[in-house]
């Protein structure tokens, strides 16, 4: 088990704290979509149900690109609607963005494809990353809503290395229905089917190398894709996965973020679970107050920055009739406890090497449950390594200690993927 040690100069630390507050607090990808893209997100009444089938696609200019001009730096982007599947296996239309790099792949073999899982961006349709690829900051005063596209950091790092990139919006983000935040089965399927759609659009062939990458919510999606690959998409030539700060044990994550700046993200998880487990709704009706129900309703249409500003540092015992935390309510409700337990990552075995990252002082994703995922996979014989980030606590609850490790592990995570594409 490797450990990452980092020394910080004061000026560098201040600059990264500011960046981390913006990135880690989740002012992330979400703003009004262009009118021309409005109908794109409504699936046709009938579509190809084959997993990874491309339902529709259209050009999607990147930042500072001139529409209609070919081969611009750093790549050519295409907005995509593709087929994935819901938790029960029924077909689902999902959107995302494929970016074919301008830079050549120079490390031998076929150009690889990495599917990126965005971190927590919110639950409202306006938060879909594919709606904001052409400008990283947007404000919608009508909602109001504010967003910053931070997926560009990892996207551009991969593109300059000649890697094809596909970024999924996840199920229910932009498209009809509730975004099922941190749903293990649906997020993993969206990543794997995103790989299938990317290979089809690029005409790369089924044997082209594939990798998965993400941090936080994206780390969970990448980890889920890694362990689902051999059963859900065995034809994919998966080479490696980087999963930073994955929420592998939702029960522990819910306890950790209660009372932090992004406490409202617990509402995203509850809304997503209620959409897939009808037995939870009577529990919510019985256990939550009018305030709690209002929070759940409001966060369903927000981006994470909006949620942080509206409900930051609240505790979920303010939302329940008994004054217990939502974690305690879940723990004594068999239906809720079962639903949360089914989101646990680590019960299947990845079929390719995985690099995990966890921060000892991470105030969003508990380090212990990342360690447990590492141990679970190792016990199954998986090829997995763990990088431990030892940045000391900085303003606990402001999610700085969640944001900074994302930045410091970006290069090692990318290098891990590139190295395994060589093999």
UniProtKB/TrEMBL annotation:
Cited Pfam families: LIP (PF03583)
Transmembrane stretches, start-end: none
GO biological process, one term: lipid catabolic process
Superkingdom as given in the UniProt entry: Bacteria
Record-level Gene Ontology MF annotations: triacylglycerol lipase activity
Protein name per UniProt: Lipase
Organism the protein comes from: Gordonia aquimaris
